[in-house]
Structures are given as structure tokens and as C-alpha cells.
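Quick one, T. Sequence first:
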Amino acid sequence: MKMIIHTLLSQVKEYKKASIVTPLFMILEVIMEMLIPLLMASIIDNGVEKGDMRHIYKIGAVMIVSAAIGLFAGIMGGKYGAYASAGLAKNLREAMFNHIQTFSFSNIDRFSSASLVTRLTTDVTNIQNAYQMILRMCFRSPSSLICAMIMAFTISPKLASIYLVAVLLLGTCLFFIMKNATGYFQQAFPKYDDMNASVQENVSAIRVVKAYVREDHEISKFKKASENIYRIFVKAECNLVFNAPLMQFTVYSCILLISWFGAKLVVSSELTTGNLMSLMAYCMNILMSLMMLSMVFVMITMSTASARRIVEVLNETSDIQNPDKPIYEVKDGSIEFRHVDFAYAVGSSEPVLKNIDLKIRSGETIGIIGGTGSAKTSLVSLISRLYDATQGQVLVGGEDVRSYDIETLRNMVSVVLQKNELFSGTILENLRWGDKDATDEDCKRACRLACADEFIERMPDGYHTYIEQGGTNVSGGQKQRLCIARALLKKPKILILDDSTSAVDTATDAKIRRAFAEEIPDTTKLIIAQRVSSVQHADRILVMDDGRISGFGTHEELLETNGIYREVYESQTSGGGDFDEKAGEA
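C-alpha cells:
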């Protein structure tokens, strides 16, 4: 718990002053509140009962000043408390978001995207509310309780002992109520992850949902996730519901006992009427302070689970780190795998890649083919250090990839992933993810190479056409070509296309391959594909099977020596090939 608190407080940063000033204003407000019952007692005992108007005016003026100071302190405490808590929330979100950007793919795999969204939103909001209550109520309530208790004992130790007993009994009961509620709150927030995952999946796949008329199924799934949260919070609130009646019972019991015993003391002249009124006021102060503290405990109880989840993200260490003395230049696009094994899960008994030995010369075009699950994507993911090899070495430009500065390596190894992502903004803005300083002409050249220029120029706004989030207003093939153009703008020494032309026809596919051969001959090109027509003209073709290299050679060599490749080729060409293959090769 100490580590959690230290991690969270390290994000207060520039809001330390506001965090210190807030409780000081709260304590000042309490002091002013404690003075008012004493001043009221003085007015009754020395003014009203003695008929001294001058004393009433004098003490009344002091009361007005005290109330004004208390009001000012309360306002300023609220202002700086809000400033400090909102600032902490801002810093936490920024720290988490920035830290997530450093994660490797394996780190991200440990957290679902829905869970990260929940931690950045709901969990941080809980911490913000708890921090504000701690700065204000957690200082105000104990100060008020202690001061009121001291003043009450100063006036009448006999009657003040009633408060002491009430506080001890009430505090014990609240402790057990909070303890029972804590477990339920800790269960609730992972359920938020499930609900957010359901929403995220539904929204991102809404076209599929509608195409298969599965709206009722999705509604049912969301309802189940929502009801899980509802049930847990009902259980927690069923514990907390005892707070209010317990507090009211204690308040009314104290008022009755103080009125009963206090009246007797007034009659016997052991207590003045003014002091009795002061004791009644302090009674309300003490019990209201306990009520506020119970609210703080509820908020802290809820936020403890959130705090743990936030700290998990902040303290997560990226599996992929820069070396102490990184290399900042990639000599060429040559690639070598030396006895490489790779597994996604640490300690996995069955690696995804097994004993990979492979040499690729700079500037070569390499086709990669294999069945689903043959680890083609896993293989190329090691080149740009999206993951690190479990065993062996991966070399780029003659150097181990772990020796390079990560940013330098990834700028020189451009990857177009299986799942193409475009961002909301114009086509030019999306293209400049590859090179933020690219000119309009650079962007157009990249689009020509990727055969994207033909459909862009048909759009009413051309390169200034706005792309919706996720690229929903362009087709799958158009999206793939824009992503290839974006990758080309990096001017990489290695270009990896991970099944990135699957949504384009073979004619366009052939044009893209021909443009690559003519325009970027020095760039090493790795093309993962399901269609033999996409890789058969490559310099060499790598055949993957169950995480191992089954064959590596030219199209003609593999037809003669590799059964897997020959079977795939024959199955795809026995029906006459792709519908436009001839056009593509023309």
C-alpha cells in the first residue's frame, strides 16, 4: 500500500502548493466554526441574561467576522482542492498514456484495450474524487472532531464523555461496515473492463453485427455485463446503507442524553444555558464530522481498487528497452536469423518459432507463404523488435536488433501490419504518419508506388479528403494501399508487407510489386501473402510450416523440392488462377 500511495503522490507535481494550501484552509474554517458556539454562549450568558446590549453587539460583530473568515476559508479550500485533485487526475492520465506508448506488444497483451480505457477514465476519476475528499474532509473532519471534543471537555467533562462513548461505538461500527464493503468494490472494477470490452467490440464490429442480425445477442451480452456491475454495487451499498441510520441513531441519542443531563446541570447551576447550547452545537459538529469521515472512507474504499489498477500500469516495465550504448545507424537492409526460437508467453513449453536460421541480402524481395498459424507474422515481428527473440539472434544490417536505438530501427524497418489502421483526419495527414515533414509531392509519389493515386484523384477533395476514424469511408483495398503509401514515406531500408495486399485484385497487386522493383530496388522487401501469384516473382520464397522453415528458394526450385509449396500452387492454379491474373501480369 505504501508503494501505491508513493506512486500516486509522485504525480501531484506542480499541484503540491494547492495540495498543501487546501487542508490549511480547511483547518482555518474549523477553527472559526469552533469559535462561534463559544461566542454564542457568551452572548446568552453575559449579554441576554444580564441585559448587556453592548456585549451582544461586540460579540455579535466578532461572530460575523469569524463566520466571514470561515466562509472565505471554505471557498478557498474548495477551490484549491478542486484544482489539486483535477491536476492529479490530469497528470495520472498523461503519465499512464505516455507510459503505455513505451510498452512492447507483449506488455500490451497483458492488458486488454478495454481495461486500459477503464483505468484511464473510471479509475482515474475515482482517484480524483478520493483525493479531493482527502484534502478537504480528511483534514476538516478530524480537526473538527478533535477541536469540538476538546471544547466540550473544557465546558463539561461529564457531558463530553457521552460524545467520547458515542464516537468509539460509532467508529467501531463504521470500521466493520467499510471492511465488508471493500471486497465488493475490488470486484467491481474488473467488471467495468468486461462491459467496456463489450461496448468496444460492438462498436468496432457494428457492420458485422448488423450483417448477421446479431443486435439482440449483443444487447444480451451488454446487459449481462451491466448486471454484473449492478449486483456487486448493490451488495456493497447494502453494507453502506447502515451508515445513515446508525449515524442518525447516534445523533438523536446524544441530543437526548445531553438535553436530559444538561438540563439537570443547568437547574443545579453546574452549567449555564449558554454552555448547554454550545455543547449541543459541538455535539452536531462531532457527529457531522463522523458522517463526513464515513463518506471519505467509502470513497477511499472504492478508490483503493482503482489505485492498484492504475499503479499496475505505471509500474509495468517494458520488455523491450534501449541498450546502454545504442547504435543510431542501420547500415543496410540485410537480415539474418541465427538459431532463433520465440514464444509469446514467458516459459512456454512450445515456442511459436523453432530454430530459425535465415539469411536475406539487402535489396532482395522475399515472399513468405504458409498456412494459417505457421508463424509468418511472428517471424517478421522480430525484425523491428515488436517482440524479442526468446533464444538466438536477429540481425539487421549486420548488427543484433537489440543493439539499435529502438526508434532508429523502427524508422528503418517499415511494417504494414495485417490489420490496417487509419486515423481520423485527411489523407495527407494520415500519410504524414510515415514522415511528418513529407511534402505534397513526396506523398503523391508514395501513393503512385502503392497504386493509391488512382482512387484518391477520383475523390472530390483529392488528398484533402477526410478519413473517418478507422477508415470506415474507404474500402478495404483502398485502406491497404494508403497504409502501404504511408510506410513508403518512411524511406525504409526494410519494407514488410504482412498480407497487406489481400484486399486488392491481382492486377493492382502486380502493379504494386512492379513499382517496388523499379522505384525502390535497394529496399529489402518481405511480402507475406496467401496467393502464390503475389510472391512467385520474388527473388526467393520462404515457406513456413508450424513455426519452422519448410523451404527457401526460387519459385521454380520450390516447385521441384517443396511439397507444401507445390500443393498450394497447384490448388490455386488448377482452376485457372485468379480472375484477373493475366491482366495483372500484362
